[in-house]
Amino acid sequence: MAGPDLNLLVVLDVLLVEQSVARAARRLRLSPSAMSRALARLRATTGDPLLVQAGRVLVPSPRALELRDRVARLVREVQEVLQPGEQLDVRRLARAFTLRTSEGFVENFGPALIARVVAEAPGVTLRFLPKLGKDSALLRDGTVDLETGVIDDETGPELRARTLFEDHLVGAVHDGHPLARGKVTAARYAGCDHIAVARRVLERGPIDAELQRQGLERRITAVVGGFATALAVARRSDLVATVPLHHSGVLLEGMATFALPVSMPAMRVSLLWHPRLDGDTAHRWLRTCVLSAVNAQVPARHET
Known about the structure:
Elements: H1 7-18, H2 21-27, H3 32-46, E1 51-54, E2 57-60, H4 62-82, E3 95-101, H5 105-120, E4 124-130, H6 137-140, E5 146-150, E6 160-167, E7 169-174, H7 186-190, E8 193-197, H8 206-213, E9 219-224, H9 227-235, E10 240-244, H10 245-248, E11 255-259, E12 267-273, H11 281-295, H12 298-302
Parallel strand pairs: 3-4, 3-5, 8-9, 8-10
Antiparallel strand pairs: 1-2, 5-12, 6-12, 7-10, 7-11
Helix pairs in contact: 1-2, 1-3, 1-4, 2-3, 5-11
């Protein structure tokens, strides 16, 4: 069953204000006959005459008087809903945003991001969650506003994405480690003890497959859940950490890095969000802040 014609609310609002078919028709740029037909439809829909002839004028019925203020309010609210949103004033914005990122991202890009947010929108709070998996459910249900990561088959196909930077793996050791000096060959790399990063039970990955093709195998002594933890351990031990260069950034300060002696594809790190937030002006502002914080650091490292 078809619902009521909501356009009749606008007609009723104008009729109750003007109390004249002719004046209401001119205001809505309709012909008097079209306005008369609309009034007839309103009477049939409401079951009330609404406007009654009294001499040469129309006067509202008791039902029309009861509806007048309510109809005016409804029409005003609908007009506000359908108008473009007001320009965002970030200085007055009071909102909490949740970002889910891999370990190392906050340590590297968080200070610049937080500094910009504090300077532009002191009423905004940023909440960072660890990224323990790639399930997109938290973006879909609104628990998470933004996420960073590498897009793969587990990423929800409906999500919006913006590339932040391309990254590649490097080896990292403390400054006194044997691999900190001389050319790092596949044999030297495989001959050291390693600390690996994995969320699940460790499986041999692409690095191990490349080493195996050369008849080599590395010994993985420890497995941790994040890059920052791997680097913290490698800094104070003889273990070799293999981490993404740009994602790790400042966490590599004071450590020696080297190009991997095996060929590995580059990784594209993206900013992800749900499409329902495309038009949210505050969310667009936050995305700009994240991009700015990343761009301020990644180009400098590209040049080194």
